[in-house]
Amino acid sequence: MRIIIMGPQGAGKGTQAAKLEEETGATHIETGDLVREEINQGTELGEKIQEYNERGELVPDEIIIDMTKPYLDENDSWILDGFPRNKEQAQALDEMLDEIGEDLDRVVVLEAPDDVLVERLSGRRQSEATGEVYHIEHDPPPEEGSEEDPGPFVQREDDTEEAIRNRLETYHEQTEPLKDYYEEKGILVTIDATQDIDEVTENVLQAVGEKDS
Ligand code: AP5
Question: Is 124 a catalytic residue?
Answer without folding.
Answer: yes
